[in-house]
Specification:
single chain, about 475 residues, alpha+beta, five-stranded antiparallel β-sheet, four-stranded mixed β-sheet, 19 strands, globular
């Protein structure tokens, strides 16, 4: 079948209005968020409903045409970008954007894959419930992409990754059949947990079209502080003390280096240093509770005073209102943008056990200082769950190409160290096409072979996001 015949059949399957041909609309969809990859598509399609998605996949499977699912296109690893062959169909889930149901008594919400995450959060809040999945891109990322990459974010320490918030899924498989396990059950021991395979599979096994999510009571109380710590080891000690003192009410615990503050103050309008004296390291910590009047502020203040006596901290600013709390969070969430504005950077999304974070920063930081004079280390992130964004920014006076030239050696050294520390080279951003070879290098061989078997079982014609995550 030639392209014209295939496209004619595709239009019949999804409706001519679902085909997007305007280059102004398709161009942003054909490059990834970080502009590492630019692809070309045989067609860009935005089906209006699950039935159209089913017909699209059946048509593509019949003709062995690859399908690349895409949500908000905010990923960091090129997982939602087609290749350059002009032989793949880009499937946008943007039109599947309904919140189907909220079961207040069951603490669940059912929403479609194209819903913007912030809109799902608002829908939960309108029912006096809380969806804890929170990301810097929540104003543009979509639920399907969040689940397909098993997104992490700011609240993992307390609520877990996206996988832990999913009770049920609706998925269209490669042959167009629909797996409907869109249940709100918390207890269901009926064989293999098939739905979990799609969480983190990045569209390589099927297309998530809807999910039933676990909600929590609405948060009524917060206590937030921006703290100057004497180092990462002191930060880990403070984290343990705060978790114990608060009854494990710590919902976020972010490690920030001095350069992170400097970059945001320099590049982001309205951001200011919360403390008067500089420190090499900081922590942004937050306690949360669903109870009105919960004395979180007292717990936080008492822990900070104890931490001062222990020599773990040197100063702290406790948010007195929502404006100050928002200012602290704006600083933290603006670090990636400030990095981009400051120049080229090499990024590593790694995790190690929380107890090993200080030693990892020491060892890996020393390697960078010795071997990468073209760059400066910017290591920050979710200390509460052991996830660091271990980035190297272009040093002033160097050219981007000088930094980029050391990327292969740098990546190998950092990822080898991560392995030695019992960690992961992909903590929360997935594999996509960027890290396929890293997965092949570092994955347990038996585990990798099982992944390939699962891929072949679900997608024998290899049409689902081919070339991403695993190669078969």
């Amino acid at each position: 079948m030639n392209d014209a015949s295939f496209l004619s059949g595709l239009a019949q399957a999804v409706g001519a209005d679902a085909l997007i041909t305007d280059p102004a609309r398709t161009a942003p969809m054909l490059r990834d968020h970080r502009e590492l990859y630019r692809g070309h598509a045989l067609a860009v399609v935005a089906p209006p409903d699950i039935a159209a998605v089913s017909r699209l996949l059946a048509h593509c499977n019949q003709h062995r045409i690859g399908v690349v699912p895409q949500g908000g296109n905010t990923g960091y690893c090129g997982g939602a970008t087609p290749d350059a062959s002009s032989s793949q169909v880009l499937l946008s889930l943007a039109r599947l954007n309904r919140v189907r149901a909220i079961d207040v008594a069951n603490y669940t919400l059912t929403a479609e894959a194209g819903c913007i995450l912030a809109d799902v959060q608002k829908a939960a809040a309108s029912a006096d419930r809380y969806l804890p999945l929170s990301l810097g891109s929540e104003g543009s990322c979509m639920l399907g992409g969040n689940l397909s990459t098993n997104a992490g974010g700011l609240n993992v320490i307390h609520y877990g990754m996206a996988r832990e918030l999913v009770l049920g899924l609706e998925v269209v498989l490669a042959d167009g059949s629909v797996l409907d396990v869109l249940t709100g059950l918390r207890k269901d021991n009926t064989g293999y947990d098939i739905k979990s395979l799609f969480l983190g599979a990045e569209g390589t096994l099927g297309v998530i079209t809807a999910a039933c999510l676990k909600l929590h009571p609405a948060l009524r109380s917060h206590a937030t502080a921006f703290v100057a710590v004497t180092g990462p080891e002191a930060a880990v000690s403070m984290l343990g003390a705060l978790r114990s003192a608060s009854g494990d009410s710590v919902t976020s615990f972010e490690l920030i280096p001095r350069i992170g503050v400097d970059l945001t103050v320099k590049h982001i309008p309205g951001v200011s240093d919360p403390l008067s004296m500089p420190s090499a390291w900081y922590v942004l910590c937050e306690l949360s509770s669903s109870r009105i009047g919960d004395p979180l502020g007292e717990v936080l203040q008492d822990t900070l005073e104890s931490a001062l006596k222990e020599g773990w901290i040197t100063d702290a600013a406790v948010a007195q209102n929502e404006r100050e709390r928002g200012a602290f969070w704006r600083l933290r969430e603006s670090i990636p943008e400030a990095q981009r504005m400051d120049g080229a950077s090499l990024k590593h999304d790694i995790s190690v056990p929380v107890s090993q974070v200080p030693r990892f920063i020491e060892v890996a930081g020393a390697w960078v200082a010795q071997h990468v004079p073209q760059g400066v280390l910017v290591a920050y992130g979710h200390l509460g769950d052991g996830n660091l964004h271990f980035n190297i920014n272009q040093r002033a006076g160097t050219q981007p190409a000088q930094l980029q030239a050391v990327e292969p050696e740098l990546k190998r050294a950092i990822h080898d160290l991560v392995r030695d520390f019992g960690g992961s080279f992909s903590a929360e951003h997935g594999i996509g096409q960027l890290k396929v070879f890293e997965l092949e290098r570092y994955a347990n061989p038996v585990e990798l072979e099982l992944m390939k078997r699962v891929k072949k079982a679900f997608d024998p014609n290899n049409i689902m996001n081919p070339g991403k995550v695993v190669r078969i």
